[in-house]
Specification:
Number of strands: 14
Distance between the termini: 32 Å
Shape: globular
Helix content: 10-25%
Strand content: 25-35%
Order of helices and strands: EEHHEEHEEEEEEEEEHE
Structural class: alpha+beta
Number of helices: 4
């Protein structure tokens, strides 16, 4: 990607400008949480969402990557790479998708297919206890702080249950344990930033990355 002011090229995984006037400036973009999901699952959780028109004025159709009319359908459907990768790791297939986290100079990747089959994963990374919640059909995965709690699946995809039987709501920006009706949450845990990436791309730029087994 590039910025409109200086036309500098920025690396999508590291958040650093790599070519142009801002290269080697020490600037780095802040990593934010991102969710890649299906419209159905998002709409069910957020029925008041407003949607940008698909009539963009351009011929290139930006549809879901499984749609044969999508601009990138052939690339997503083909297990091969468009360009040779200089460093491959055969622990996963090159185009397997992972949830990738970075913290305190460390990095870790989680296979999306495995997360989707698990649903809820309690783990520890870079000295921090976390929980990853994943949706089975879209494979949307979100990582959250878990404090001293251990979570399991709740009655729905949007609920977790802790070790004491308390019910937590899964939200985009955090987990919330609600108090009595009308009092709001009595405890909240923040969402952690992360990427969804192809394994070959993540491994190329973070060769020291740990892989969750």
């Amino acid at each position: 990607m590039y910025d409109l002011n200086t036309k500098s090229l920025w690396h999508a995984l590291t958040g650093e400008p790599v070519i142009g006037p801002l290269a080697h400036s020490g600037l780095r973009l802040k990593v934010l949480p991102v969710t890649t999901t299906t419209w159905e699952e998002w709409r069910d959780a957020h029925p008041d969402t407003r949607v940008l028109s698909v009539n963009t004025g351009f011929r290139r159709p930006y549809r879901h990557h499984t749609d044969p009319q999508s601009a990138y359908y052939e690339y997503f459907a083909d297990p091969g790479l468009m360009f040779p990768a200089f460093q491959l790791d055969d622990r996963l297939r090159p185009k397997d998708q992972v949830l990738a986290l970075r913290s305190n100079g460390q990095s870790k990747a989680y296979l999306l297919d495995s997360l989707a089959s698990t649903g809820v994963l309690n783990d520890t990374f870079a000295g921090q206890d976390l929980v990853i919640v994943s949706e089975r059909f879209s494979r949307a995965a979100r990582a959250y702080e878990r404090g001293t709690h251990t979570f399991r699946k709740g009655a729905s995809d949007r609920e977790l249950v802790d070790e004491r039987g308390n019910v937590w709501q899964v939200r985009e920006l955090g987990l919330a344990r609600e108090g009595p009706a009308g009092t709001g949450p009595v405890e909240e845990l923040a969402r952690l930033p992360g990427h969804t990436a192809y394994w070959f791309g993540w491994r190329a730029f973070f060769p020291e990355s740990e892989l969750y087994k």
